[in-house]
Specification:
Helix content: 55-70%
Number of helices: 48
Distance between the termini: 50 Å
Strand content: under 5%
Strand order of the largest sheet: 2-3-4-1-5
Length: 881
């Protein structure tokens, strides 16, 4: 029969195509298997993956036959004839043509193929692409026979949109079957970034790549369509754009490649359930009122119609559609004339009845029926103890006009709590002020005081916060949540005002009992107050212990991105930066910075400082300027002062005191604006320390001592440990400039003793060579542990890694990259992506010990001692290759 040679030609692999290294490694390591199944929905890159593997197989000397299956291959004789054509095209000598056999017996049909492959002798890989197009009752027995009777040198590779109905249990049990599914075919973030760099913009930012990857949900063709959409809108290149169903390419692709040929009743079913974020059989049946719901869902799952199983409580299996496919279906539903309000009302009632309140409210919102929404919100008020639910609840309440909300005092009060928890300060103040005008406010005096205290904290007014709480500080509130909130507010307020002992006594009092031993999120935030006291006192070792323990509880009980977990992470990252554990700081802040940018002032400050200290110098300066502007816009002057002080410190590390004068003037302006305000004593101390550094850099040690003397009263009053140590270090440097060696040595001894108690490292290291010289002259401190600490500081100062973006003009060391083995290059490339040792071992199919051994070799060759330095090396060299 005449055959089209294009059936036997694999698709070309574009030079810019993302090499699916992990999947190719999986296939290659299972290369001796009898059968390979690559199953995934449309556009998941099955053909590209097989084409890439084919290239690798051919390079290894294997014989590879390719057949693109089409609906024309639905008859057994035609299918087998094309199999023979594929083998001949690959060079396999066919001694006999396959025939019709005896009554189409599969054994007779495939016997010539099996014999030819056996006679060929070399390893033969027969790749069948789009096999789902020929899964007929005639073809399936042929393929089953081919699998069951294949010679040892024949390996059948099948790519399909659904699992073929073949008997494969024996081969699976024998380890002769390699399977790759949709979940594995989707791009991970690294692959998506590589794809976007090749097809959209070589300089695309990682944040943009992250957003696009999330929108496409790993779907390769979706990412390609998004790239096309962004190319068509170049002015929006720096932002992820929504790919709407009407966008060029998406509708055509889904209509022609996915929905073509589906029965009308199934299409109608798909469109109706597209209003559901997740669905199971019960809700689908209730929503669509279809007797065929069970059969339809089974077909959807078997056909891989962009559906994924999801974990949900209960015995029912839940599913969700791919977001882009769901939106495509929803758009078709909107244009179909269906009664959307009726569908959403059915869905809302079903979810409410089963206690799935988030889904119930989402559908109520979609109905655009204010009466129904308010009635539902009245019925489903979340408990106050659940911070995450409160955060969600306020977003729902914002859809209700304030005048209408005022008619429901309990909703208004709960909305104020939700707005406070999500740091919607202005919204909370508006709702709370309105609530105080209602008769119900008198009965909720305790909550009103707590809310005003929380808002004072968000406005960075610790003194006002303490004033609001004073009337109820010791009173039993008869509500665990309210008592936990009180602890989380009152303790930091006292400590930030210098009343550290009072704060610690309160933590141990009966009034704070509700925050001890509970895993409720507000209880964990209250327990974290101890870490804030340690922060103010400068006891960073204690802070690390408390925050790390609380973080483990928060992540386990409420998730990695919960408010409690993010607060713990911010404190830990700050401490880790001080300890020089930059990799741990990176890990703590990963995927949390967006939440920490909109928090209460103390956590925003430590998160911003930690993040800046993990960046290259230029990037850190830009980031600090951006955060300063953000804080100024919100009248958070103490936060802005911290950003200015950090900028000055960075500039002086480069001996650039002239450029540091501008930020110092701005910092002085802030100090003068708040000179009489107790809660802004920190601004005065930061300004004085920054000025002392600057005048030291200009060679004015006497002036530096005068400046430091001016803040000693504030340092004693507020008892901030890091202020005390920094002041002592700067004083000893000034005394050394003046030749007052004995006084300088005494001052440095006191600083080292304080630093040892608090666990400080970076505070000393950032003073550079002048301090190193003084530490070297200091001699023994009379205690073994102090001497070890001093020697460790000396070692770190002497070997501190150079700044990431330091150039030759600033004396940066130019490293001649040593020769790494290919395996070490692979590991270093994955390390650059901040992968853990375990993840690297899994990605490269190595043992954990092998990865650790290779890392030790890499460290030795590069002359470094930590993963973080290895990451810096890889990034400095553009990814070591």
């Amino acid at each position: 029969m005449p055959m089209l040679s294009t059936k036997f030609a694999p698709p070309r692999v574009s030079p810019g195509a993302v090499i699916r290294e992990d999947l190719l490694s999986r296939l290659q390591s299972a290369g001796e298997s009898r059968l390979f199944l690559v199953i995934g929905g449309a556009g998941f890159g099955k053909s590209t993956l097989l084409a890439q593997w084919r290239q690798a197989l051919v390079k290894d000397g294997a014989t590879v036959a390719w057949m693109s299956v089409t609906p024309d291959d639905g008859e057994a004789e035609t299918f087998v004839a094309h199999l023979g054509g594929a083998l001949r095209h690959a060079g396999v000598s066919m001694l006999a043509e396959s025939g019709s056999g005896i009554d189409g017996d599969p054994h007779f049909l495939v016997a010539p193929l099996i014999n030819a492959v056996m006679e060929w002798g070399d390893e033969v890989y027969l790749l069948l692409d789009d096999f789902h197009q020929a899964e007929t009752a005639s073809v399936l027995p042929v393929v089953q026979t081919l699998i069951d009777h294949a010679p040892a040198n024949l390996h059948l590779v099948v790519a399909s949109r659904r699992d073929p109905p073949l008997l494969l249990g024996r081969w699976r049990a024998m380890g002769e079957l390699c399977e790759i599914g949709s979940d594995e075919l989707g791009f991970d973030l690294r692959e998506a970034h590589a794809f976007l760099k090749a097809y959209l913009d070589p300089a695309i930012a990682m944040d943009t790549a992250h957003r696009l990857h999330g929108q496409a949900d790993g779907w390769p063709i979706g990412l390609q369509l998004l790239s096309l959409s962004m190319k068509a809108n170049p002015r929006r290149r720096d932002h992820a754009v929504a790919l709407h169903p009407g966008a060029p390419g998406l509708s055509e692709y889904l209509a022609e490649d996915v929905l073509a040929g589906l029965p009308a009743d199934l299409l109608d079913f798909l469109q109706q359930i597209s209003i559901l974020r997740r669905y199971n059989l019960d809700v689908a049946r209730h929503l669509t009122r279809s007797d065929e719901a069970e059969r339809f869902i089974r077909y959807i799952e078997e056909s891989n119609l962009f559906v994924q199983a999801v974990d949900a409580p209960g015995e029912s299996q839940w599913y969700r559609f791919h977001p882009m496919f769901q939106e495509f279906l929803a758009q078709r539903l909107r244009t179909s004339g269906a009664d959307l309000a009726c569908l959403h009302e059915r869905a809302s009632a079903w979810f409410e009845k089963r206690g799935l309140l988030g889904d119930a409210v989402q559908h109520a919102l979609a109905m655009d029926d204010l009466d129904y929404l308010v009635a539902l919100l009245e019925r489903v008020q979340p408990p106050q103890k659940n911070v995450s639910h409160l955060s969600q609840f306020v977003r729902w309440l914002q859809r209700v006009p304030l005048e209408r909300l005022s008619q429901h005092p309990s909703l208004l009060l709960l909305g104020a709590w939700g707005a406070v928890m999500t740091v919607r300060t202005a919204q909370a103040e508006e709702w709370l002020a309105r609530f105080e005008l209602l008769p119900d406010a008198v009965a909720h005096r305790d909550q009103v005081l707590l809310l005003w205290a929380a808002l004072a904290t968000q406005r960075d007014d610790a003194a006002l916060c303490a004033q609001w709480l004073a009337p109820i500080a010791e009173a039993p509130l008869n509500n665990l949540f309210l008592e936990q909130v009180r602890t989380s507010l009152y303790v930091p307020a006292l400590s930030s005002l210098g009343q550290h002992m009072a704060a610690r006594r309160y933590l141990n009092s009966a009034a704070a009992r509700a925050s001890r031993g509970s895993t409720h999120e507000m209880a964990l935030i209250g327990a974290l107050s101890t870490a804030l006291v340690a922060l103010f006192e400068g006891q960073l070792l204690e802070l690390e212990q408390i925050a790390s323990t609380t973080l483990a509880k928060a992540e386990q009980s409420h998730g990695r991105r919960s408010v409690s977990a993010c607060h713990c992470a911010a404190l830990l990252a700050f401490a880790y930066c001080e300890f020089g554990r930059n990799e741990a700081a990176h890990e703590a802040l990963a995927n949390r910075l967006d939440i920490l940018h909109f928090s209460v002032p103390e956590f925003m400050i430590v998160a911003a400082l930690a993040h800046a200290r993990l960046q290259p110098r230029a990037a850190a300066m830009d980031y600090l300027r951006e955060r300063e502007e953000y804080f100024r816009e919100r009248d958070l002057d103490r936060c802005a002062a911290n950003m200015l002080a950090e900028r000055i410190r960075l500039l002086l590390l480069d001996a650039d005191w002239r450029r540091a004068e501008g930020p110092l003037v701005a910092l002085e302006d802030l100090r003068q604006a708040h000179v009489t305000t107790p809660q802004h004593a920190e601004v005065s101390v930061l300004a004085a320390l920054a000025k002392a550094r600057l005048v030291l850099a200009r060679g004015q040690p006497e002036l530096a001592i005068q400046v430091l003397d001016s803040i000693q009263g504030l340092i004693r009053e507020y008892g901030r440990g890091t202020w005390t140590t920094s002041s002592a270090i700067l004083r000893c440097l000034a005394l050394d400039h003046l030749g007052r060696d004995e006084e300088a040595q005494d001052c440095l001894r006191e600083a080292v003793l304080q630093g040892y108690r608090m666990g400080l490292s970076r505070t000393f290291l950032d003073e550079g060579e002048p301090l190193r010289r003084l530490l070297a002259k200091l001699g023994s401190l009379g205690r073994e542990e102090l001497d070890r600490y001093r020697i460790a500081l000396l070692s770190h100062v002497a070997n501190a890694p150079l700044d990431q973006d330091a150039g030759p003009e600033r004396g940066a060391l130019v490293i001649d990259a040593p020769t790494l083995t290919p395996r070490e290059v692979e590991i270093l490339a994955l390390l650059e992506q901040s992968m853990s040792n375990k993840r690297i071992a899994l990605a490269l199919n190595l043992s954990l010990q092998t990865v650790k051994w290779n890392l030790r070799n890499i460290f030795a060759k590069l002359g470094i001692s930590s993963r973080y330095e290895a990451i810096l090396f890889a990034r400095r060299h553009g990814g070591y290759r």
